[in-house]
Design brief:
The chain is α/β, with parallel strands linked by helices. It folds into 2 domains: 109 residues, Urease, subunit C, domain 1; 309 residues, TIM Barrel (Alpha-Beta Barrel). 33% of the residues lie in helices and 24% in strands. The protein is built from 16 helices and 20 strands. Strands 1, 2, 3, 4, 5, 17, 18, 19 and 20 form a 9-stranded mixed β-sheet that branches. Strands 6, 7, 8, 11 and 12 form a 5-stranded parallel β-sheet that branches. A 4-stranded parallel β-sheet has the order 13-14-15-16. α1 links the parallel β6 and β7. α1 runs parallel beside α2, α1 packs across α14 and α10 crosses α11. The chain is globular. Bound molecules: zinc ion. The site of zinc ion (ZN) has 6 residues, from loops.
């Protein structure tokens, strides 16, 4: 007999409506599921079950699909460079500063565990992790119970910032090709993983750090395997200027010429396209190129907003027919915070409340992410779909008083009201902690790992600056009176 769990009389279910292809509220409904998926969404469930959960004061919400995040060193990067940037590179801090952060092989598991714990705590059930491959990657992800795609990054050029003002590229094609081969092995291992919850994505790291030949070969490798491709593209003005210098094209136009655009491609960030105010192009064709090819965008607003950069805008991209999905990129790995920022940024970018709605942003965080990954069985609560969902506590102070549950969650309570998260019908997060991996143990390890990184700043900085000069504290430190 299958192990059916029934959520009885859920006050609110965000259910998938086949008729509209979107989400809709269902009130006082029963939801039944087992490890294969949802078996019932609707009125009273009459079938057999082994476990019953009260849905009183609960909203059943589809699991979020995060199409872009990085484990690696990102979980220890917090609090270094939020107030820094390279003026000559349009204020972007990534090229000069993030490359200074070093994490040892022994610490990658703890960093990964903290990231995936944070994602689960904010209602994510599926995520794409773009990072360097390591031994603990697949085992830790599988152990967590989450649904995950590994996207092992590779590139032929390393960034180098000369004198804090010029971005150079140091090419090493042999090393890049070796990393490409290793990445494909990892992708194949993930696809074949017995858990059935892991997948692989081919990930040339950045559009400007791979040769055109490698980008095309990577796309071929992905397409012959029927797995998605992801590339950071149109993510910074420095990259935009570099591609103009090399090819006379925007990133999107360049990838179109290479034959890389397509419904299996997810472009990381895709902010600085020809219609963005900063790029000052004479054309506004990139959105049409993305829409016509079915290419998806991984929108990660928080990291960029921190540097004063904004996509123009989620509503405009969607109205142009572009599939905009959501990612958390670097820290914080908080999907609900990302959703709220996506909504607010879109309204600021266009100067109108009408650019996107709360429902649009839920769509971006669920169905659009599923579509980007080529799946119609996740990001929705419907009979036959995977049982990936959250239970939201409607009695949480941040959710009170309740008129519209989704608005309260997005605009007020955020992850604080996420009471439990299920993947494949199993509880993987409860009481603000992942149930299957040692989140607190991993957190305790990270301080020493961050201290190690700080000690190595000076040696990693081409200008030999001290940690205090590179990452001054936000406040001065006073001596005791
Ligand atoms: Zn990224």
């Amino acid at each position: 007999m299958p192990n059916v769990t029934v959520i009885r009389n859920a006050r609110t279910v965000v259910a998938y409506d086949e008729g509209t292809g979107g989400h809709a509220y269902m009130q006082d409904a029963d939801v039944a599921f087992d490890e294969t998926g949802f078996v019932h969404v609707g009125g009273h469930y009459e079938g057999p079950f082994t476990t019953e959960i009260s849905g009183h004061d609960r909203m059943v919400l589809p699991g979020f699909v995060n199409v872009h995040c990085h484990s690696g060193e990102e979980p220890i990067s917090k609090s270094f460079f939020e107030d820094q940037g390279t003026a000559a590179l349009w204020g972007q801090a990534m090229y000069e500063y993030s490359t200074l952060i070093e994490i040892g092989d022994d610490a990658v598991k703890a960093a990964l565990t903290v990231m995936l714990g944070d994602l689960l705590r904010s209602g994510v059930t599926t995520f794409v992790d773009i990072a360097g491959p390591h031994e603990c990657w697949l085992p830790t992800l599988a152990e967590s119970g989450a649904r995950a795609y590994v996207a092992p990054g590779f590139r032929e050029a390393q960034w180098h910032v000369e004198d804090s003002h010029r971005l150079d590229f140091r090419w090493d094609s042999v090393r890049g090709r070796e990393a490409f081969a290793r990445a494909l092995e990892t992708v194949d291992a993930a696809q074949a993983h017995p858990s059935g919850r892991l997948g692989g994505i081919v990930a040339p790291a950045q559009v400007e750090t791979c040769s055109p030949e490698l980008l095309q070969e990577a796309a071929e490798a992905a397409r012959s395997r029927k797995v998605p491709i992801t590339i950071h593209a149109a993510q910074t003005m420095a990259e935009h200027e570099e591609l103009l210098r090399r090819h006379g094209l925007t990133a999107v136009h360049y990838l179109e010429k290479l034959g890389v655009l397509g419904p299996d491609l997810i472009l990381g960030h895709c902010i600085f396209i020809d219609s963005h105010g900063w790029t000052r192009q004479r054309t506004a064709d990139d959105l049409g190129r993305l829409a016509a090819s079915g290419t998806s965008v991984a929108h990660c607003p928080v990291t960029f907003a921190r540097s004063g950069m904004i996509l123009q805008s989620v509503g405009r991209y969607r109205r142009s027919g572009v599939n905009v999905a959501l990612g958390t990129d670097s820290y914080p790995f908080n999907m609900l915070e990302e959703m709220r920022t996506a909504l607010i940024n879109a309204r600021i970018a266009t100067g109108t409340v009408f650019d996107v709605s709360t429902a649009d942003i839920l769509d971006v965080a669920t169905l659009a992410g599923a579509k980007a990954l080529g799946r119609s069985d996740i990001g929705r609560i419907a009979k036959g779909a995977k049982a990936d969902f959250s239970l939201v506590d409607l009695k949480h102070p941040g959710m009170q008083p309740v008129y519209d549950s989704l608005r309260n969650l997005l605009h007020c309570a955020a992850e604080r009201a996420v009471a439990a998260v299920y993947v494949d019908g199993a509880c993987v997060m409860e009481n603000d902690r992942p149930t299957r991996v040692d989140y607190d143990g991993a957190l305790a390890e990270l301080q020493a790992v961050q201290d190690f990184a700080v000690r190595h700043f000076q040696a990693n900085d081409p200008r030999g600056r001290s940690a205090a000069a590179l990452a001054p504290l936000s406040l001065p430190v006073l001596p005791h009176p």
